[in-house]
């Protein structure tokens, strides 16, 4: 982690942290190398939070500190944070364990890709056995989806036939991949270009393809969601609705305008040479809306993962009532 780069990104947000006045404040805590920061920056830069009746306060954190769902749960439950993002399976897992958190808006198909050296012998799912595979942590959604796909399409479980190496953070995973300490690694999608654009590495398996194959639908299903605490939702439902509206406006802008991506490249990306790949990837990843049918598809995907990977891999037996809030 380059601390100067993190501070520079935070300064870009702070330049738009004007006086909230009488508006309800929504405190957002997001990883400095996660892609939601692009959307949050667009909201702040375009003043969409104030236009929709709330004040968004964004603080960037390191994934080493924020990688555990326990930390997220405690921050939301105890009132230290009002907004985070995570995959909906993690929301279901933590809600089943008693966390008072709720997913209220889709973010996108935030899965990653399996990255390997350009001379790798790994070409797809069938080639994973016998290799050292890097992940951020064992419950990483990329790993769960890959296990499920291998079991369904190739009748083996890589948890039994490959060696899993947990890196604990995305930065450490990149280090393991670059250092050859793993044969391949499941890296988060915004960080894939930092490896593949050098020409030394290739993405051999986009996990988004597995999402669609397992879901059996052409609809783009969100994996990541924006999450708040039940207590914040009860106290400030209009702010939550305001964020959903602001996020939709920001997505519309980011899908159709290149000028804001030029600004994002200058202020939020450590390497401008990957800006084009990041822009394209973000536009393909983001999900613009959801409804009852989308939630039904997400539940079908969960049921399929549960059937082939089991509750031990998912960390939860079923999606509890109240996991999703579609009121906006």
Automatic annotation (TrEMBL):
Span of domain SsuA/THI5-like: 74-255
InterPro entries the record matches: SsuA/THI5 (IPR015168)
Gene3D superfamilies to which the protein is assigned, alphabetical: Periplasmic binding protein-like II
Protein name (database record): ABC transporter substrate-binding protein
High-level lineage: Archaea, Methanobacteriati, Methanobacteriota, Stenosarchaea group, Halobacteria
